[in-house]
Amino acid sequence: METLLEIKNLEMKYAVKSAFSGAARGYVNAVNNVSFEIKKGEILGLVGESGCGKSTLGRCLLALEKGFSGEILFQGENILNIQNSKDFRKSAQMIFQNPYASLNPRMKIYDILKEPLLIHGIKDKNLINQRISEVCELTGIDKDSLDYYPHEFSGGQRQRISIASAIILKPEFIVADEPVSALDVSIRAQIINLLKELQEKLDLTILFISHDLSVVRYISDRTAVMYLGEIVEFADNEELFQNPKHPYTEILLSSVPKINREQKEKMIISGDIPSPRNLPEGCKFHTRCGRVFDRCKKENPKFLQISDNHFVKCNLYEA
Predict the structure, then answer these.
(1) 3-state DSSP assignment of residue 73
(2) Please, which residues have CB within 8 angstroms of residue 238's CB and are 6 or more apart in sequence?
(3) How open is the CA angle 191-214-186, to the nearest 5 degrees?
(4) How far apart are CA 44 and CA 237, in angstroms?
(5) Is the Cα dihedral 164, 168, 171, 175 positive or negative?
C-alpha cells in the first residue's frame, strides 16, 4: 500500500516562560522522537491517556504547530516546504474535538461551508451550490437548515457540519481529533459510522485520535499507542488487540469491558504519569511498569519490529 505520510524523528517542545521576565524556564516535551508511516486510504487509530501528546502530534502533521523538529513528508515532500501552499491546505484538513467551539457562531451554515471554497478561489455560485449540496448529501445535513446558525443545532448535527466543512475541498488526509468525545453516547455511533462511510466513498486517509479503545478497534485498520510523547506500540488492529506486547498497551486493553467473553482480571497501573517537563531517564514507562528491570531505568528502548506489521518500544523484546 502506498505511503501518504512519513514521519521521521518528530519532536515538539513548548517553552515554559517566566511570568515576570518572559525568559524560558524549561520545556514541555509534548512529542518525543516519533517515527511512523500512514498508508494511503487507511484509518490509523492513535490512542493514549489525556496529555500524552496525541492532539499535538495531529496538529504537527497539518503544520498547525510551529517550531517542531524532524521531518513530516506528505506524498514525499516535506510539509515545512509546502505548509503555506493552498494545494497542501486543500489536501489536509482537521475535524476538531468540540463542535460547539469549532464553528463560527456568527455565520450561517451555508456561509461556513462556502468559506473554504472562496478561500481557495472557487467563486462560481453554481459550482459552490453544487459542492455544498454534495457534502450535505454525504453527511446527512438537511439542505433546508443551511440558513440556520450553529447554536440552533444539536451536538451531533454540529459535528456533521464540521465534517462537511472538512471534506468540501475534497482532501486526501484528515486528522479527526477525538471527534465523538464531546457528544452524547447515543449519537457517537452515528458519527463514527459516518466517518467510516466517508473514508470508503471518498478514499480518505484518516488519523483518528481517541482515548476510547473500543471505538478505535471498530473504526481503524492499524493502531498506534502513545505514552508521554512516544509511540510505544504500533500494529495492525487484530494483532494489537489480540496480542499486545507493551505493558502499557496490556493495561489499557485490560480496562476495556468485554461482552460474552471471559473477563480477565483488570490490570491496575500504579503511580501518576510523570511530568512532560521532567521526563524520567531510560524507558519513559518504567516508573509505572510492573515488569520493570534495571535496564529500563537506564536505557530508553529502541522501536523494534517484532513481526511483519508489529512494532514495540520495550526492553523486554531487545536482545
Answers:
(1) strand
(2) none
(3) 40
(4) 9
(5) negative
Q: Per-residue confidence of the chain (319 residues) as pLDDT tens digits?
A: 899 999 999 999 999 887 777 777 889 999 999 999 999 999 999 999 988 999 999 999 999 998 999 999 999 999 988 877 888 999 999 999 888 888 999 999 999 999 999 999 999 999 999 999 999 999 999 999 999 999 999 999 999 999 999 999 999 999 999 999 878 888 999 999 999 999 999 999 999 999 889 999 999 999 999 999 999 999 999 999 999 999 999 999 987 766 555 555 666 677 778 999 999 999 999 999 989 999 999 999 999 999 989 999 999 998 6
Distance separating alpha carbons of residues 261 and 21, to the nearest angstrom: 58
Query: Helix (H, G, I), strand (E, B), or coil: what is residue 59?
Result: helix
Whether residue 33 contacts residue 69, with contact meaning beta carbons closer than 8 Å, is answered with no
Grid cell of 106 as nine digits: 456568527
Length of the chain (residues)? 319
Q: How far apart are CA 311 and CA 12, in angstroms?
A: 22
pTM: predicted TM-score of the whole model, two decimal places: 0.93
DSSP E strand boundaries for the chain: 3-17, 24-39, 43-47, 69-74, 77-78, 92-95, 173-177, 205-209, 222-227, 230-236, 303-307, 310-313
In angstroms, the CA 57 to CA 227 distance is 12
